[in-house]
Amino acid sequence: MKYDVIIIGAGPGGIFSAYELMQKRPDLKIAVFEEGNPLEKRHCPIDGKKVKSCIGCKPCSIMNGFGGAGAFSDGKYNITNDFGGTLYEYIGREKALELMHYVDDINMEHGGAGTRIFSTAGTAFKKLCIQNRLTLLDASVRHLGTDINYVVLKNLYAELEPHVDFFFRTPVERIEVIQDGYRVWHADGEDEASRCIVSVGRSGSKWMERVCGELGIGTRSNRVDLGVRVEIPATIFSHITDELYESKIVYRTHKFEDNVRTFCMNPNGIVVNENTNGIVTVNGHSFEDPEKKTENTNFALLVAKHFSLPFRDSNGYGESIARLSNMLGGGVIVQRFGDLERGRRSTERRIEECTVRPTLAATPGDLSLVLPKRLLDGIIEMIYALDKIAPGVANDDTLLYGVEVKFYNMEVKLDENLESCHPGLYIIGDGSGVTHSLSHASASGVYVADRIADTM
Ligand SMILES: Cc1cc2nc3c(=O)[nH]c(=O)nc-3n(C[C@H](O)[C@H](O)[C@H](O)COP(=O)(O)OP(=O)(O)OC[C@H]3O[C@@H](n4cnc5c(N)ncnc54)[C@H](O)[C@@H]3O)c2cc1C
Question: What structural domains does the chain harbor?
Answer without folding.
Answer: 3-117+142-220+411-455 (3.50.50.60), 223-407 (no CATH)
